[in-house]
């Protein structure tokens, strides 16, 4: 029988995502009941037992799933770069992986519940979330399983507008609203994949499949865009749209409009607006667009560093970095750095899964897991470059 690498990768990814989807329900909030069905209740009880009361095993299972997932991810990229996988196979794999991820519980962040309640303040209570917070509605049952209930709406108005239809279509029901929001993230995730493919097709067609696989199968992107989704997904979509419909189609108006919309989700995109002044040096040419991407990636890195300085290295901060990096995948060092960054960022979840209580020692361990691999890689490259020069 002829060896079929795609079949092995396909089954491996599906198995890992199915395992991660099931595992995500070990982290379900104890104040939240998704179904009263006795069979579901029995299964959920066993999963909660693992997630909350057998933490050592839980952390090990999560770590094992992620390690295998990253191994498969590297293998896929290698196969794509060697022209052993085609577009149809990559789309099929990404589609099934994405659908499985959407079925998961948002295990690693409660942000999606805040997004839902922000919209609920408008659709149910007809009030402005910039002036009202979840704590102002203590009788609402949704508040029981939310975090950060004391904060006012911190995002741009475009993000609120985007969420309102999905909140209305939830008809005030938690499960239906959660499904709607998950589907919303899936749609924008697929939109990001489309734009990445189209942009790279224009500026570096030899790597269009690799870029698609690099973003669509990246475990961090899967986790932070679909499992525990964050609105960086939407911010990235409009920023990529500004590059594709604005820069590559030589439309200054579209670039400015889409970047403003992107900033209306999260304000960081405002930093990219002045780059339109460089348009006359770019003129849609691959080399010029590539230089623009390097500037955007540099600005993105600076703003992420600021966010980390004022808060901490939350994994979802790197969605934008991975998104823009996917457009420059031909640079091997950037690709390797992005993979190390993704692995380290997801590894930050392990100490909490292991201990279950935030503490100074836990934060030190999170930082060690995240920063040590990055420091080793940067140090290695520094020494290597020195030896080359000598």
Report on this model:
The chain is mostly helical. It is 69% helix and 0% strand. The chain is globular and about 60 Å long. The termini are far apart.
Helix and strand layout, with pairings?
Elements: H1 5-24, H2 38-53, H3 55-81, H4 87-102, H5 111-123, H6 157-168, H7 174-203, H8 208-216, H9 219-227, H10 232-247, H11 252-263, H12 279-282, H13 286-310, H14 319-325, H15 332-347, H16 349-355, H17 360-389
Question: What labels describe this entry?
Answer:
single chain, mainly alpha, 0% strand
Helix share of residues? Answer: 55-70%
Helix and strand element order: HHHHHHHHHHHHHHHHH
Average pLDDT reading: 90
Helical segment count: 17
Q: Major sheet: size, sense and barrel closure?
A: none
Question: Segments where pLDDT lies below 50 for 5+ residues?
Answer: none
